[in-house]
């Protein structure tokens, strides 16, 4: 897998645009638009939020000097959720549209962008209050995403808004006919995040039809190239909800996805993907198993590597499951060190930009 090509691209991200992306992911998206997009086919973005990923892709497409007018399609329900205020303190209530803020942020690229206010269906988990708070609920009045206008194929599909197994399945069913074998990239922003287990699970289900090609080591993004058309029967037979995925199958899929990364030397990425088994087990009501798997993963965490996700998972275990698992010393020390470095960086950047 490619891990470096985008690292040194000269891209000046507009700091006023809020984003949930890591620094390396911004550069990666710029590089995708500039170098991986050949000017043929659309770039489609699912889940632009306030336009952070949009401006990275758009700036790259402009830098490519290919004809980019109207070629970047963005899809989002554009519905504000309270948790978003931690990243962007906007005067919006839960459920209000943030589309005007998106449009203002992407204004310099408006002639490239076609925005679609559409929703993906979601699974709802009574056992996961945190995730439910981030979800769109069925009674809200945004139309379902069921197509893109025209018939142009998709070269790059950036996915950052498929927030459930059901949403991911629906997205693939809608867009698979527009993907081009041997060419299209499926860029999964949530692949290495422990909460979004359906992403590695789904890509492992498509093994043989897709191959992992880019691994953004400083973020959670992994991209796949489509090798063969995804047969309609494959998509039709996918379970319509995560609760219908047999537990052992689900765990096996996550292990397979983690294996792609460890084989490629991304031990931290593989550990983060493995951690997704904990959230999966808990969401399907298997908390005892979730605790056992968590302890196992925590005790073999790669030494001196980022512990953010394992610390988040232990907080989840405590608050949602009531299971208090002691953190090993190595994880506690690394976490303290990360907090110190984070505070120092914040201090320095405040001084630079003051
Ligand atoms: C993590 S944010 C994306 C962050 C963004 N790409 C960035 O660069 O900062 C996820 C986005 O997906 C959207 N989203 C979540 N669930 C959705 C659904 N069911 N249908 C449509 N959009 C959804 C949210 O509104 C949000 O804008």
Can you describe what's shown?
The protein contains twelve helices and seven strands. By secondary structure, it is α/β, with parallel strands linked by helices. It folds into two domains: 23-243, Vaccinia Virus protein VP39 (Rossmann fold); 246-353, no CATH class. Strands 3-2-1-4-5-7-6 form a seven-stranded mixed beta sheet, covered by helices on one side. It starts with 22 loop residues before the first helix and ends with a helix. The structure holds S-adenosylmethionine.
Please identify, by name, the CATH architecture of the largest domain: 3-Layer(aba) Sandwich
Write down the secondary-structure element order.
HEHEHEHEHEHEEHHHHHH
> Oligomerization state of this entry?
single chain
Task: Give the cofactors and ligands.
Answer: S-adenosylmethionine
What portion of residues is helical?
Answer: 40-55%
Could you name the CATH homologous superfamily of the largest domain? Vaccinia Virus protein VP39
How many individual domains?
2
Looking at the structure, the CATH topology of the largest domain is Rossmann fold
CATH top level assignment of the largest domain:
Alpha Beta
Uncertain segments are none
- Rg over CA atoms, rounded to whole Å, is 20 Å
Percentage beta strand: 5-15%
Count of DSSP E strands? 7
Summed over residues and divided by their number, the pLDDT gives a mean of: 93
What features would you highlight for this structure?
354 residues; alpha/beta; Rossmann fold; 2 domains
Task: Give a short overview.
The protein is α/β, with parallel strands linked by helices and 354 residues long.
């Amino acid at each position: 897998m490619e891990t470096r090509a985008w690292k040194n691209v000269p891209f000046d991200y507009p700091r006023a645009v809020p984003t949930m992306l890591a620094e390396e992911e911004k550069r990666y998206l710029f590089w995708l638009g500039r170098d991986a997009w050949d000017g043929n086919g659309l770039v489609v973005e699912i889940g632009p939020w306030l336009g952070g990923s949009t401006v990275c892709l758009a700036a790259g497409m402009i830098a490519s000097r290919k004809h980019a007018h109207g070629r970047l399609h963005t899809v989002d329900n554009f519905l504000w959720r309270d948790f978003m205020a931690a990243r962007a303190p906007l005067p919006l209530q839960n459920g209000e549209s943030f589309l005007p803020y998106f449009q203002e942020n992407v204004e310099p690229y408006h002639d490239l962008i076609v925005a679609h206010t559409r929703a993906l269906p979601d699974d709802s988990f009574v056992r996961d209050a945190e995730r439910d708070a981030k979800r769109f609920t069925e009674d809200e009045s945004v139309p379902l995403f069921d197509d893109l206008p025209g018939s142009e194929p998709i070269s790059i599909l950036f996915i950052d808004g498929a927030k459930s197994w059901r949403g991911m399945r629906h997205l693939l069913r809608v867009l698979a006919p527009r993907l081009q074998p041997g060419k299209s990239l499926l860029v999964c922003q949530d692949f290495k995040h422990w909460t979004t287990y359906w992403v590695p699970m789904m890509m492992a289900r498509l093994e043989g039809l897709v191959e992992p090609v880019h691994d953004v080591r400083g973020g959670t993004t992994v991209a796949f190239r489509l090798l063969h058309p995804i047969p309609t029967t494959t998509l039709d037979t996918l379970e319509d909800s995560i609760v219908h995925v047999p537990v052992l199958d689900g765990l096996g899929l996550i292990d397979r996805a983690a294996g792609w990364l460890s084989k490629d030397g991304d031990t931290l990425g593989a550990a983060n993907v493995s951690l997704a088994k904990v959230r999966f087990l808990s969401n399907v009501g298997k908390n005892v198993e979730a605790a056992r798997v968590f302890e196992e993963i925590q005790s073999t965490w790669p030494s001196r590597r980022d512990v953010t996700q394992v610390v988040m998972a232990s907080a989840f275990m405590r608050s949602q499951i009531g299971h208090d698992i002691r953190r090993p010393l190595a994880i506690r020390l690394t976490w303290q060190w990360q907090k110190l470095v984070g505070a120092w960086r914040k201090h320095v950047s405040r001084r630079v930009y003051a």
